[in-house]
Amino acid sequence: MAAGVASLPAAGRVPVAGGGEWRLRAACRGEDPELFFPPGREDGPGWGARARAVCRRCAVRRDCLAYALAAPEEGVWGGLPPAGRESLLRRAKGDVARAVELAAAGRAR
Ligand code: SF4
What we know:
The protein is mainly alpha-helical. It is built from five helices and no strands.
């Protein structure tokens, strides 16, 4: 995404507010933060669906997911809601790198 850092909406709350330089290439730059931190129950129908659609076209999805797995966050990061990230991390026995690989393998199927 070509937007400058200063154009990030609601700094401190959008997914790209944390992490490393990968955030500069995040597809969510300039998107409405509410997409990534939607109201309602995470297990509700379609929760975070619009955010996950943005994540699917994001070039830094793996970096973002690794960040959010290592530093638990609310909302959608790396294309997954918190429960999805927790589940992935459990399957990977706490190994963040392994969890990122499992997520990528799941997307490739
Ligand atoms: S994977 Fe999603 S939340 Fe993470 S940087 Fe990309 S678009 Fe933003």
